[in-house]
Amino acid sequence: MFLSIFEIFKVGVGPSSSHTMGPMTAAGMFLETLQEHRIKPAGLGCSLHGSLAFTGKGHATDRAVILGLAGFTPLDYDPERAEQTLSDIQATGQITPPGLPVLSFAPSQDLVFDYDKVLPLHANGMILSAYDSDWNLYAQEVYYSTGGGFVMTAAEMADNDVVAEEPSAPYPFRTSAEMLEMARKSGKSIAQMKRANELHHMGQGALKAGLARVWQVMNTCIDLGLETGGVLPGGLEFRRRAKGIHEALQRERGQNLSAPHSINDWISVYAMAVNEVNAAGGQVVTAPTNGASGVVPATLRYYLDHVPGARADRIEDFLLTAAAIGGLIKANASISGAEVGCQGEIGSAAAMAAAGLCAVLGGNAAQIENAAEIALEHHLGMTCDPVKGLVQAPCIERNGLGAIKAVAAASLALRGDGAHLVSLDACVETMRQTGRDMDSRYKETSQGGLAVNVPEC
Known about the structure:
Blueprint: H1 5-8, E1 11-13, H2 17-36, E2 43-50, H3 51-54, H4 61-69, H5 79-92, E3 94-95, E4 103-104, H6 107-110, E5 111-114, E6 124-131, E7 137-147, E8 150-153, H7 154-158, H8 176-186, H9 190-199, H10 204-227, H11 242-254, H12 263-279, E9 283-285, H13 295-306, H14 315-332, H15 337-340, H16 346-360, H17 365-377, H18 395-414, H19 424-437, H20 450-453
Parallel strand pairs: 2-5
Antiparallel strand pairs: 1-9, 2-6, 3-4, 6-7, 7-8
């Protein structure tokens, strides 16, 4: 299966790609199945399992499922219409999916958080069911939300063979070693190869417009986060910090008071701004997930606003290079916090951002691969332990530090010639093994780590 840049970078809604966007998408897929088979049930039901159960409330998974069954999608999510729809469903115990009659669906009864049963193929499992008028099972499907908004049925999971680039594409690399060899033989950059592979599936105009849209949403998200104060929803009373930090940085710069290390604060504040918007349920771009959505935009904004000689016409190369690395990690390990911990989210995002920055700063293919490896290597073993199941602590600051590491990794790689001891492939495989061995308490269940040691939890 070819992974397009627009599968790595999806425009969607917060707070979580795996726990919000994925379940909403799965609900829509179930509706399509009912319509395709001309199934007209009398009622619907859903059970959430594993991490979707344990942190589903904090990630708004229940809301996402209900809205997905009502016909909402992450791409065209309308907050005001969503609130009215949720209110109506709660009040009436009925739901009207597009293309189907009015159905019985009382969220308090028909949407179950099953904390005891973990489905076998992934930690993010859910079962959607349709019933007849006597509440006999009419149709049922098992879905898995595998991270970054990706959703697969149980049958698809059992037969999954994800490759980074389609074999029929011009440059079908599945590993970083193959990517480097193709770059060497072709004389092309990673961005050029990724672009050629994308153009195998779409026209030049569609690719250009899609890339512009991705950056526009990312950049708008940064600006919105920098302008918005207050407290984030969810019960932690978590104060938004990006606005205040940004205002202080602007004052210091205007008075020529900034210390050299304050550049780290600029990088961090861009990332934190994005993740504060995400935590509030705003529009973001998966990069490769919502929980890690601040790292890539912050690194690219750092390049554009703070690096002498930065050029806006290199944005596409940055994003294409980052997506190539994200595709390799998705294909050979995971980007799901519920599967491998936060190393799969922030670690992957930092690797992508480091590669993109290295590319636009003039790095060759070997240096870019080295940058990605450095960034990922120094996130290995990172757990996912969100306090109260919310994508707030430690997630928001973690994006800031991930972006700082990405910049440092790109800089280190550019100081070398690309030769290094640990390959990106070895690092990705290590992440996969580490995630496999990691205790489930530290994989987005909020049953260990900070989630049980912070009093607010």
